[in-house]
């Protein structure tokens, strides 16, 4: 992985973050707040990834479903940011992240489940706010720039990244750094650096945003602009595969052929549906700006979180998280899910953290993706200060920093029920 062509080094940074989804933005901002120079490379023309471009503008529940918030830190900060200038809200029963015992007793008496700490948010405004946040924190942004490959050297069986080659309007550029974060959602940097990864297929899902005369009427009647928008599908398969056509192979999303097969079949399917509508009664506001793949490729981390790790404490936890679908179910994210010790200065975060099966789903949704981004940015800063490989940093110190930034590191054993009777609610 040497630099075999003549490209001048454009600049050197302490930390380069590849991919400006919620995880990458969190990583870049947290590294910058820790005093490091940071470059954030994004192939699209706005930040937020799936949460904005991908039209997935919904913070899944950040609570245990029994009235107690579990996920805080930058996930809480981003959620508050996203709600500042647009629609969406947290249920008013939540005060300082909890529902009072009296209110919970009221729900129990009525045989109802308490509301969850979750919200929709305006995707495009949030994208603008992420740019504002990055600029305010001194993160250098390079939009419209595709990371094409790493430049690395091998020493003592370990890979050390030296820089990355990107392609943009200027042509080919080369940036170097001491630490690298792969937040591409597809593990592009980790994979191309030769670090082991795993892949998983995706169902036939392609949901755009539409307005209709009826939805506009409803928005006016309710006085809530959020109701003006409604969904329009190409493929409409659910998270668990319901509605996935039998004759369509799963999409792995790690090859150009797969991406094209997904986009062409879904776009034609959506158009076929639109052709049947009265053409003056609706319009498509936007198609998803990126493939709506939940899980493509992830790191083979030094630890891979399993569904059976529910209620297990990890010494190297970087944050407690809740299952977004099933009430009660709590997990902790081991730091080792973000690193593979074959790479000395490369870490990942977001939907490429190492989870197996359903545990990958629990890890990849927006709030945990932000928490792992926050942890990855801080870990890079710490690795630089400690002059250590990123897998070898003083994790208790990282935990203390995260705690000081309002991240809950370990869940409370008092919140483990003897038995949970909760089932999947299809919240993703
Ligand atoms: C259909 C669907 C429904 C979902 N529903 C929900 C939900 O309701 N609530 C919820 O919380 N989560 C939901 N999720 C999951 C959630 O949206 C994502 O897991 C989360 O947003 C991932 O964030 P990320 O930053 O890790 O990755 P991404 O959002 O994928 O961001 C990666 C970024 O990297 C950029 N990038 C990629 N490759 C390169 C490259 N080579 N060079 C430069 N830039 C690159 C991309 O453009 C993108 O901006 C859903 C996902 C899907 C697909």
Secondary structure: elements and pairs:
Blueprint: E1 9-18, H1 22-33, E2 38-41, E3 58-59, H2 73-84, E4 94-95, E5 98-99, H3 101-109, E6 119-120, H4 123-136, E7 140-142, E8 146-155, E9 158-168, E10 171-182, H5 188-192, E11 197-199, E12 205-212, H6 213-222, E13 230-236, H7 256-275, E14 282-286, E15 297-299, E16 317-322, E17 330-334, E18 346-348, H8 358-364, H9 366-386, H10 395-404
Parallel strand pairs: 1-2, 1-10, 2-7, 10-18
Antiparallel strand pairs: 3-6, 4-5, 8-9, 9-10, 11-15, 12-13, 12-14, 16-17
Helix pairs in contact: 1-9, 2-9, 9-10
What is the domain tally? Answer: 2
Mean pLDDT reading: 96
Uncertain residue ranges: none
CATH superfamily of the largest domain: FAD/NAD(P)-binding domain
Strand content: 15-25%
Query: How would a crystallographer describe the biggest sheet?
Result: 7 strands, mixed
The DSSP helix count reads: 10
Distance between the termini: 38 Å
Structural class: alpha/beta
Q: What small-molecule ligands were found?
A: flavin-adenine dinucleotide
Which features does this protein show?
FAD/NAD(P)-binding domain, 7-stranded mixed beta sheet, 428 residues, alpha/beta, binds flavin-adenine dinucleotide
Write up this protein.
There is one protein chain. The protein has helices at 22-33, 73-84, 101-109, 123-136, 188-192, 213-222, 256-275, 358-364, 366-386, 395-404; strands spanning 9-18, 38-41, 58-59, 94-95, 98-99, 119-120, 140-142, 146-155, 158-168, 171-182, 197-199, 205-212, 230-236, 282-286, 297-299, 317-322, 330-334, 346-348. The chain has 428 residues and is α/β, with parallel strands linked by helices. It folds into two domains: 9-200 and 296-415, FAD/NAD(P)-binding domain, CATH 3.50.50.60; 205-286, no CATH class. Helix 1 packs parallel to helix 9 and helix 9 crosses helix 10 (395-404). The longest helix has 21 residues, at 366-386. Flavin-adenine dinucleotide (FAD) binds at residues 18-24, 41-44, 49-51, 56, 58-60, 146-147, 183-186, 188, 205, 290, 292-294, 350-351, 364-366, 369, 428.
């Amino acid at each position: 992985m040497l630099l075999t062509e003549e490209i001048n080094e454009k600049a050197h940074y302490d930390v380069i973050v590849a991919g400006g989804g919620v995880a990458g933005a969190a990583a870049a901002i947290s590294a910058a707040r820790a005093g490091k120079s940071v470059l954030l490379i994004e192939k699209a023309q706005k930040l937020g990834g799936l949460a904005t471009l991908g039209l997935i503008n919904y913070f899944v529940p950040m609570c245990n479903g029994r009235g107690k918030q579990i996920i805080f830190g930058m996930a809480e900060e981003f959620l508050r940011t996203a709600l500042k200038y647009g629609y969406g809200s947290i249920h008013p029963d939540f005060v300082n992240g909890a529902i009072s015992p009296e209110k919970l007793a009221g729900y129990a008496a009525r045989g109802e489940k308490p509301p969850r700490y979750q919200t929709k948010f305006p995707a495009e405004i949030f994208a603008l706010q992420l740019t504002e946040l990055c600029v305010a924190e001194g993160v250098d942004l390079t939009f419209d720039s595709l990371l094409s490959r790493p430049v690395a050297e091998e020493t003592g069986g370990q890979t050390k990244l030296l820089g990355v080659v990107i392609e943009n309007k200027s042509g080919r550029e080369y940036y170097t750094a001491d630490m690298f974060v792969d937040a591409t959602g597809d593990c592009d940097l980790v994979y191309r650096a030769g670090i082991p990864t795993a892949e998983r297929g995706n169902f036939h899902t392609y949901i755009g945003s539409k307005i209709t005369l009826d939805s506009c009427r409803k928005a006016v009647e309710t006085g809530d602009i959020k109701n003006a928008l409604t969904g329009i599908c190409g493929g409409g398969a659910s998270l668990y595969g319901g509605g996935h056509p039998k004759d369509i192979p799963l999409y792995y999303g790690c090859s150009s052929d797969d991406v094209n097969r997904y986009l062409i079949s879904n776009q034609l399917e959506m158009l076929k549906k639109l052709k049947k509508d009265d053409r003056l009664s609706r319009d498509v506001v936007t198609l998803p700006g990126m493939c709506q793949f939940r899980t493509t490729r992830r790191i083979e981390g030094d630890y891979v979180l399993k569904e059976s790790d529910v209620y297990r404490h990890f010494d190297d936890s970087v944050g407690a998280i809740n299952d977004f679908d099933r009430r009660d179910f709590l997990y902790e994210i081991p730091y080792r899910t973000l690193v593979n010790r074959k790479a000395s200065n490369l870490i990942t975060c977001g939907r490429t953290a190492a989870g197996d099966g359903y545990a990958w789903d629990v890890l990849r949704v927006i709030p945990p993706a932000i928490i792992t981004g926050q942890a990855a940015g801080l870990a890079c800063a710490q690795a630089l200060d400690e002059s250590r490989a990123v897998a070898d940093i003083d994790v208790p110190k990282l935990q203390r920093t995260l705690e000081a930034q309002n991240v809950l590191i370990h869940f409370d054993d008092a919140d483990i029920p003897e038995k949970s009777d909760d089932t999947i609610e299809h919240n993703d």
